[in-house]
Amino acid sequence: MLNQEAGSRGEQSPLMGEVSTKGEREKDQESFHPQRGAIASDQEASNPHSKVAFSLVSKLCLGMLLPFAMFSCTSLDSNPKTTGGDSKPRVVATSTIIADLAQKVGGDEIQLTGVLKPGTDPHVYEPVPADSRFLEEADLILYNGYNLEPGLIKLMKASGGKARQLAVGEVVKPLQLEKAKGEIVPDPHVWGSAENAIAMVNSIRDGLIELSPEDREKFTQKAAQLTKELTQLHSWINQQIQTIPADKRKLVTTHDAFQYYGRDYKIAIAGTLIGISTEEQPSAQTVKLLVESIKKIGVPAIFAETTINPALIKTVAQEAGVKLAPQQLYSDSIGAKGSNGDSYVKMMEANTRSIVEALGGRYTPFQLKK
Ligand SMILES: [Zn+2]
């Protein structure tokens, strides 16, 4: 029996279902409830992936996805962004989301290095030699955890540095999902809810205070300001999603990064092309089932993501006869500097705008109240 948070297998959509026998497929399709609008419970929101059939991996899919993954890995040799002077405590953050939150809490009191560059997929990132040096020289390492960044976590665990290693994302109670071959894992995409991001900010604040107690007041004040902003963002997203007609409040994305968003903002995760980690590859059969299901559930648009090659989801949209939302979602990384998603708050705002506009809601900009 699965953990309750893993969702109800009986309610599962066929989109990511194991492609095994025709009989099982039909059974799955019968139990899929595409008309479901607003989500009644956590279980419904956390529509789990089940087993993606690796044996059926299409060469076409691989051909489309792998070049981008390789590009992501090889494009990271340039120096990660480091701020602050040499005398300040050295803080290393793995994901761009954590780096952004840490910079806002730490301000000028820390020397921050973000390992991943905006737009990089953390699931498949392969560390470069410079990363080892940053991790070894760090005074504090802030990482997401729940295996979001397996390459960097492995390197960090093996590094000889004395830095405290703080799994910022693991302060959030995880939703659980089933990977290929039935493995149950915690979902690492915890930042999908701004409320979870507040817990992450608290964790970063406490880690920084431990590192540099004399700056306690500054860290506390900055964290409080950010928390105020995130609290307002959380209410705003809730209000925005509710403007989408109930029967269109369904999200189809490239990979499964929006469970926490779906749960907290009451929009059903109606399908994903790739599982919890982009290491998984969709089979030709998964693609076919996704196309069929999109036709059935009647969503006006589906979504590409900034960290994943959009070629395959584009094909799915064309075959299903739906639009691909013009603005890609920022899933596992904030956007490049100057983009409309170049901070955590802006990425959440941009994602919400994209979802609301593509699914027929009424978008009004997020404005921070003093
Ligand atoms: Zn992801």
Question: What this model shows, in words?
Answer:
With 370 residues, the protein is α/β, with parallel strands linked by helices. It has twelve helices and ten strands. The chain has helices spanning 22-31, 42-45, 59-74, 96-106, 129-137, 150-158, 194-211, 216-241, 259-265, 284-297, 311-320, 344-358; strands at 90-93, 111-114, 140-143, 164-167, 176-178, 184-186, 250-255, 268-274, 301-302, 323-324. The protein has a four-stranded parallel sheet with strand order 2-1-3-4, sandwiched between helices. Helix 4 (96-106) packs across helix 7 (194-211). It is globular. Residues 1-79 have low confidence and may be disordered. The structure holds zinc ion. Zinc ion (ZN) is lined by residues 123, 189, 255, 257, 331-332.
Keywords:
single chain; binds zinc ion; 370 residues; disordered N terminus; two-stranded antiparallel sheet; alpha/beta; globular; four-stranded parallel beta sheet
Seen as an oligomer or otherwise, the chain set is single chain
Question: What is the strand arrangement across the widest sheet?
Answer: 2-1-3-4
Identify the overall geometry.
Answer: globular
Unreliable spans are 1-79
Fraction of residues in H or I helices:
40-55%
- In terms of DSSP E residues, the strand content is 5-15%
By DSSP, the count of extended strands is 10
Mean pLDDT score, rounded? 81
Structural class: alpha/beta
What is Rg?
Answer: 20 Å
In this entry the ligands are: zinc ion
Largest sheet: 4 strands, parallel
Short summary:
This protein has 370 residues and is of the alpha/beta class. It has helices at residues 22-31, 42-45, 59-74, 96-106, 129-137, 150-158, 194-211, 216-241, 259-265, 284-297, 311-320, 344-358; strands spanning 90-93, 111-114, 140-143, 164-167, 176-178, 184-186, 250-255, 268-274, 301-302, 323-324.
